[in-house]
Amino acid sequence: MSDAQLLSPPVPRIIGQRRPDGHVPPTVARSWSVLSTVALALPPALLALTLSVVGIGSRSMWNDEYATWYAATLSFRDLAKLLTNVDAVVAPYYLVLHFWIEVFGDSETSLRMPSALAMAATAALVAVLGRRLFDTGVGLTAGLIVAGLPAVTRYGQEARPYAFAIGFATLATLLLLRAMERPTWRRWIWYGVGLVLAGLVHIVTLTVLLAHAVFLGRTFRVSGDLRLLRWFAGAFIAVTAALPLAAKGSEQSSVISWIKVDAEALTSLPERIFGSWQVALVVCAAAVLATVLLWSHHRGPVVLLLSWALFPPLFCYVTFPLLHLFLHRYLLFTVPAWALLAAALGFSLARFTRRAGSTVPLSLSGLLVVAGMLAVSGPGQQAARHSPVYGEPDFRSAAAALAAVAEPGDGIAYAGTTRNGRRALDYEVRRLGLLRDVLVERTSQENGTFGAHECTDPGPCVGDTRRIWLVSTTAANLDPMDGMPGPTQGFLLTAYTLSEYRSFEKIRIFVLNRKDPR
């Protein structure tokens, strides 16, 4: 027996083949020791955790993370009021983070640490899934690819649910394979639970069901084992559990009406999903080549992974006029499929060349893909840590500047048509208690939304405040009060003198000093 045969044995079938007499022999389920599983999963998990934790609190937060902090720190009553109006589909994540904050606080590091841990778990799960689909070498390689992706670092350092979506999509797929190897009701129920978790952290993740259905249908045609039809029970559990969130989310679809499907959204999708164009090219090129080489003799795993990688974005694109879900962050859970295909390149080469009698390095040669990806991932890793997030205002620096000069009795007001700084500054200066939001008539908690309701008559609200700091996210060539109602602008310019204090990335601070009465 050659080394190739010894170290990379043929992939066992997911389920027994139907014999000519119609009988399906029992499947021999594969099993691995706990120690071997830990040894396989630990390196990818540690790499993902390390890359996510290094500098995790250095990057300033951005709009969506401020929303997470706001929602997760509300009382249950106020959170329920918020969720009736917006973000119902993210409710489970907010609840988990609420309890996390109770224990670990609300610093940037604390808010993001659950995502870092989820990314580490995801890399481990991908390694285990790769072993089950192909072999140990592919599993290790795929786990390392996922761990080293700039996008994994980026969203492992973000207080949003996308890291959990990737992890639960991978877990559900792993549970699917386990159930198909031994189609007991218990395993199918566990599969349903995995899908429920995937749908609860982000509803779009449930589109992984499309890939599962294609893979199961193909396997059923080959084996004819009726026990595979129990898959419908697991799918039913997931869809039933997700329906309330989906229904509520459809009522709140206006909050994602800004999403567009244009040429830029389409052409930039690979870069945004992987974290850089260079990494996307390396991983996708390896995945395509592995697909071609494996198609003849290992079509089942390839069909599963291709469906997982391609069907969710296609579904979101086709249904965009109705659902408005075509956004790269929503599709990050397809990354493991690409990584697994790319990792299978060495595995496919070993089998392709072995037919000609060659004894090339085995599936661990796929580690060359890891090396290639890491070699070009530097710019992507730097971009993942850029502070602030590209295109976002630098509220942290603005808040630090305000904290240095603000005095008790000062007021603060907000202007801008892009990002409103109220929620961001509430977070950044939350422990100072120096600045009164002079234009607020009804708070966001009272509204049950992310935004406050400002006074229509600003005079009584402002009162005799002597100095107001205006935080404006309008472009430098525009009126700093752009976005404010006309009466509010008129009052402030009549009662105060306006002068610019400091500028930061995509944000300017102005000081309004009360005019002396004549």
TrEMBL record:
GO terms for cellular component: plasma membrane. Residues 96-216 form the Glycosyltransferase RgtA/B/C/D-like domain. Pfam families: PMT_2 (PF13231). It is a multi-pass membrane protein. Keywords: Cell membrane, Glycosyltransferase, Membrane, Transferase, Transmembrane, Transmembrane helix. One of its GO terms (molecular function) is pentosyltransferase activity. Residues 1-22 are annotated as: Disordered. InterPro entries: LipidA_mod_glycosyltrf_83, RgtA/B/C-like. GO terms for biological process: lipopolysaccharide biosynthetic process; response to iron(III) ion. The chain crosses the membrane at residues 34-58, 79-101, 113-130, 159-177, 189-216, 228-247, 277-296, 302-323, 330-350, 356-376. It is found in: Cell membrane. This is Glycosyltransferase RgtA/B/C/D-like domain-containing protein. It comes from Actinoplanes auranticolor.
